[in-house]
Amino acid sequence: MEKLLSLIRESGAKITNPRRLVLEKLTETDKPLTLNEIYEECEIIDFASVYRSVKLFNELGFVEEINFADKKVRYELASKLHHHHVICSECGEIKELPICLLSEIEKITNYKITKHSFEFMGLCPKCKN
Amino acid sequence: MEKLLSLIRESGAKITNPRRLVLEKLTETDKPLTLNEIYEECEIIDFASVYRSVKLFNELGFVEEINFADKKVRYELASKLHHHHVICSECGEIKELPICLLSEIEKITNYKITKHSFEFMGLCPKCKN
DNA sequence: TTTCTAATTGCAAACTATTTGCATTTAGAA
DNA sequence: TTCTAAATGCAAATAGTTTGCAATTAGAAA
Questions:
Q1: End-to-end C-alpha distance for chain A, whole angstroms
Q2: CB contact, 8 Å: A91 with chain B?
Q3: Chain A closest CA to B65's CA: distance in Å?
Q4: Mean pLDDT of A50-71
Q5: Which of A36, A63, A120, B55 is most buried, by CB atoms within 10 Å?
């Protein structure tokens, strides 16, 4: 958290209350959040501020934008190792995946990959019965 | 095309001009199209009709909805073998991928996967220089 | 072939999610 | 403490998707 605040400061941007709050929410949880989830948890601040804070954090490189298989966009701290998710369509539980295949895809296609989604949705072990 | 028209008829739905046109566009091309691309190619028909036709085809199971890494949703005939795509962010060229890993993900997670996106965006060999 | 009706269409409007302009407020440098 | 560029809150614009409804039409039945 402190390290991330420094990153913001170093970029020339100001440490403001909205930014601190949004960052807090992202730091407190280990699961990716939608803008709306962050907004609802913050209560005080405006949605546009959540939007702009997250956008800034993403540009600064420490928050990642993920396109989930349920078509929702969620955000999480980029500090973890690169990974992907499965989300349960019933209870919303999110599990991380240990694989990715990015470099294999680059080899196969000879593209320079800049963005990818490798996201799954289904029924978790509990909900599938 | 004829086979697909039969599928529509058998489902109890009518063969109409909009449906025929939308199906035509999807049949004519080998690359996934956005609703808007279909709409613009059809000219005569309304966007809502494109929307509802594609939705019907998807429910009947012969058109697939794909969430691309550029956040756009595209549709293509499901007749081909299951596959995924890389799209060039520069020129829009789309290449198909020969891998997927669906069953591996099910094994790893013990989820019953119902939907997934395995889509990439980057620079194609031509555009990357 | 004509008639008839439920299904489908076109249009316009409603949603939902995302993004932006601008007057007011504020972080933090001087 | 003062001052100003940056950031916020609000409200409205934009874009993508979805829906209600009156008018039209496919195709079953006469």
A1: 40
A2: no
A3: 11
A4: 97
A5: A120
Cα separation values, B17 from A74, B22, B40, B44, B125, Å: 40, 9, 16, 10, 40
Please report which residue ranges of chain B form alpha helices under DSSP H. 2-10, 17-28, 35-42, 47-60, 102-109
Is the model's pLDDT at B57 over the cut of 90? Answer: yes
Whether residue A128 lies within 8 A of chain B, CB to CB, comes out as yes
Render the burial of B92-113: b for 16+ CB within 10 Å, e for the rest: ebbbebeeebeeebeeebebeb
pLDDT of residue A8: 97
Which residues touch B62 (CB under 8 Å, ≥6 apart)? B4, B7, B77, B78, B79
Which single residue is written with the structure tokens 């997927």? B100
In CATH, A84-122 is 3.40.190.10: no
Domain coordinates in residue numbering, chain B: 2-77, 84-122
pLDDT tens digits along A90-112: 999 999 998 999 999 999 999 99
